[in-house]
Design brief:
single chain, 468 residues, alpha/beta, Urease, subunit C, domain 1, 11 helices, 22% strand, globular, binds zinc ion
Length: 468
């Protein structure tokens, strides 16, 4: 078959899926086509997993809301020159915090990794500290020897230290650094671009966290890790640069599948000419975007941190050995896309009891600034939310929802605290969208016989009413 004809046929076959997604109809039947068999994970994986638990997890990063100064105080002792590391200051943030570049390795393949350009996305920075310990403390490990001989790693941890200081997405000027790759208006983005130009990486790793609420495809399963080979044009064409990235993404999936089957997704391939991953791909680096979502119960993302580390090592090893060449693109292509974003908490079936107002049947949706910790919540919606699903649902039938007095006028605005847009309305009135989530579930309308309290944050000691 001529290549052009084959391509036309392939495109024709792909069209129903696209239509199905855009019109909310059931997906084209994918079950008739058997999914590609996922190869076994690398032979070294279980050994490295055990080594990680025994020695590699760097202490001092148990709270994921650390700032850049703290991260460097933890990482710097790992970065001795005798261990092969070279650290240099390559710029300053808007608030004059140092921006640093860590170089390691003697190989001919330059690899650039950058983390936390969104200040509240810290999982990769934790994993990078663990990677530094692995590289530095285990120079004779076969994986480390291979990496050192064949690659040179250029790491730019915490691109956005001013944002990290506030644990917020944007830099201190309110600019999203991952929308500043074209204009380069910020010193942080300029520093990353200058490093890129100097290093001229063959491979790039754009390291992020995404919303915990994302589902994997149209399933009810949360996305723990999402991968993307960012497109370099609006057509999302695949050239040699992207082919390598797609292969490496397939390698990461293969390594993490034993841990996260069904919870690995693909970020969508819409081209954004302002985003770093899209442009580094355009500039010629085979770039992989890795997004840490969430694992329920892993409130500080410490389990996800290890999996992020293992995925990174698998990717780097496949680059050092060339073993990603020929990996089936389907391992990436057949991942479900990130689907719906589920809100954090749904209080279903309660009766709203606000002093001076008539009692009203209403469901209540709450989103938290830190969804895994369930802290700093705000009302996201109220009313008949019978069609909604949430990460956690409480059954409030036979209970009254009573605002906690004394907080009128207060508001909590939840920033889009991970990747994805956020358009929550804001209002200062209690128990209306945008207000702080401060209420009790009570057996009486005056809030005296309290069953459960949400005073902005969930008190983990409070017994929850029945979930359903
Ligand atoms: Zn991000």
């Amino acid at each position: 078959m001529r290549p052009t004809l084959a391509l036309c046929l392939l495109l024709t076959m792909m069209i129903p899926t696209t239509i199905a997604r855009n019109t909310d109809m059931p997906r084209a039947d994918a079950s008739t086509q058997a999914p590609t068999a996922i190869p076994p994970p690398p032979a070294w994986l279980s050994g490295l997993d055990a080594l990680y638990d025994a020695e590699l997890r760097v202490a001092g990063l148990e709270d994921r809301t650390f700032n850049a100064e703290h991260w460097w105080s933890v990482a710097t002792p790992l970065l001795a020159r005798t261990h092969g590391f070279h650290v240099e200051e390559i710029g300053r943030s808007v608030e004059d915090r140092p921006l640093r570049h860590v170089r390691w390795g003697e190989g001919r393949i330059p690899v650039l990794l950058w983390s936390q350009m969104h200040g509240d996305e810290s999982t990769a920075s934790m994993a990078l500290a663990d990677l530094f310990r692995f590289l530095g403390d285990h120079p004779d490990h076969p994986l480390v020897r291979q990496l050192r001989a064949n690659t040179t790693l250029h790491v730019f941890p915490i691109v956005n230290p001013d944002g990290a200081a506030r644990f917020q997405r944007r830099n201190v000027q309110g600019i999203d650094l991952n929308r500043d790759a074209r204009m380069l208006a910020t010193p942080e983005a300029r520093t990353l671009k200058a490093l890129y130009d100097r290093v001229k990486p063959m491979y790039g790793f754009n390291l992020h966290d995404q919303r915990v609420g994302y589902r994997a495809g149209d399933s009810d399963r949360g996305t723990a890790i999402a991968l993307l080979s960012p497109p370099y044009n609006h057509a999302a064409d695949v050239n040699d640069v992207r082919t390598r990235a797609i292969e490496v993404a397939g390698v990461i999936r293969t390594a993490l599948e034993p841990y996260l089957a069904g919870h690995i997704a693909r970020w969508d391939e819409t081209f954004d000419p302002r985003a770093f991953g899209d442009l580094t791909t355009q500039w010629g680096a085979s770039t992989v975007l890795i997004e840490a979502g969430g694992i329920e119960g892993d409130v500080q993302k410490q389990r996800l941190r290890k999996l992020y580390f293992l995925g990174l090592v698998a990717a780097l090893d496949s680059i050092a050995t060339g073993s990603h060449v020929g990996v089936a693109p389907a391992l990436y292509r057949e991942l479900p896309e990130n689907g719906d974003v589920w809100p954090d908490l749904l209080v279903r079936g309660g009766t709203l009891s606000v002093p001076g107002r008539p009692p009203t049947k209403a469901d209540l949706l709450v989103n938290f600034r830190n969804p895994l910790m369930e802290t700093d919540g705000a009302i996201a919606d109220i009313g008949d939310l019978g069609t909604k699903k949430a990460r956690r649902t409480l059954d409030a039938r036979d209970l009254f929802i009573v605002p906690i007095p004394g907080h009128e006028g207060e508001r909590t605005v939840i920033e889009a605290n991970d990747d994805g847009d956020n358009d929550e309305p804001r209002s200062p009135l209690p128990l209306t969208p945008g207000a702080s989530a401060r209420f009790v579930l009570s057996r009486d309308p005056l809030g005296r016989d309290v069953v459960w309290t949400l005073d902005g944050s969930v008190d983990p000691a409070t017994p929850a009413p029945p979930a359903r």
